[in-house]
C-alpha cells in the first residue's frame, strides 16, 4: 500500500465497478452465469464473469486456484474468501483476486453473487476441513445458483473414488473446465 492510499482507492473503484455491473445485469434480468456464453459475450454485454474461490486451512489450494484462474480468465472478477484469516492471507499473496473476505457470512454473501464457485469439494460439506465449513457455509455453496467446479480431495472424512491424493492432473482438469466455460465457443 502506498502512503497516498492509491491501493485503497483502486479497491473502492473496483468494488464500485463490480456493483455497477451487477446492478446493470440485474436490471436486464441477468443474475446467473450461463455456461453457454463466452467471456467475450459477457464483456460485450457489459458483463464480467464473477468467480468465487473458497478455501480454508492454510489457503494453499485457493492461492493456486487464484493464480491459475487469473492466467486463463484475465478479465474475470475474482473474489477469494477464506474460512479463516490465514487462508485469506495466503490467497492475498497470489495477488490474483480482485476482492478478499474472511468468515462464514462472507462465504454466504459471496455465494449469492457468484456465477462460478471454485474450491475443494469440502466447501459443500458441513463440518469439512477440520470443522471450518459450517452447515450454513456448505448450504450456501450447495444451494447457490452458481456453477460449481469442486476439486476432489480425499480429505474431510470423505473418499472420492477415482481420485489420487495430490494429483496435479485434478487441478489441471479443473482449470481446463473453467477455461472452456469462459472462452468463446468455436461453433458459434
From TrEMBL:
Highest taxon, organism lineage: Bacteria
InterPro entries in alphabetical order: DUF3842
A Pfam match: DUF3842
Protein name (database record): DUF3842 family protein
Amino acid at each position: 500500500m502506498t502512503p497516498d492510499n492509491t491501493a485503497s482507492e483502486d479497491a473502492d473503484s473496483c468494488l464500485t465497478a463490480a456493483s455497477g455491473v451487477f446492478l446493470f445485469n440485474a436490471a436486464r434480468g441477468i443474475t446467473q452465469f450461463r455456461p453457454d456464453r463466452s467471456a467475450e459475450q459477457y464483456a460485450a454485454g457489459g458483463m464480467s464473469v464473477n468467480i468465487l474461490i473458497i478455501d480454508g486451512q492454510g489457503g494453499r489450494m485457493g492461492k493456486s486456484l487464484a493464480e491459475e484462474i487469473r492466467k486463463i480468465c484475465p478479465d474475470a472478477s475474482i473474489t477469494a474468501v477464506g474460512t479463516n484469516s490465514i487462508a485469506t492471507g495466503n490467497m492475498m499473496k497470489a495477488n490474483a483476486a480482485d476482492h478478499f473476505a474472511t468468515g462464514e457470512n462472507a462465504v454466504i454473501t459471496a455465494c449469492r453473487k457468484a456465477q462460478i464457485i471454485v474450491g475443494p469439494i469440502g466447501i459443500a460439506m458441513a463440518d469439512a476441513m477440520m470443522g471450518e465449513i459450517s452447515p450454513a457455509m456448505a448450504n450456501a455453496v450447495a444451494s447457490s445458483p452458481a456453477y460449481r467446479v469442486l476439486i476432489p480431495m480425499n480429505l474431510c472424512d470423505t473418499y472420492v473414488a477415482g481420485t489420487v491424493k495430490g494429483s496435479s492432473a485434478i487441478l489441471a482438469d479443473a482449470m481446463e473446465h473453467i477455461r472452456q466455460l469462459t472462452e468463446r465457443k468455436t461453433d458459434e
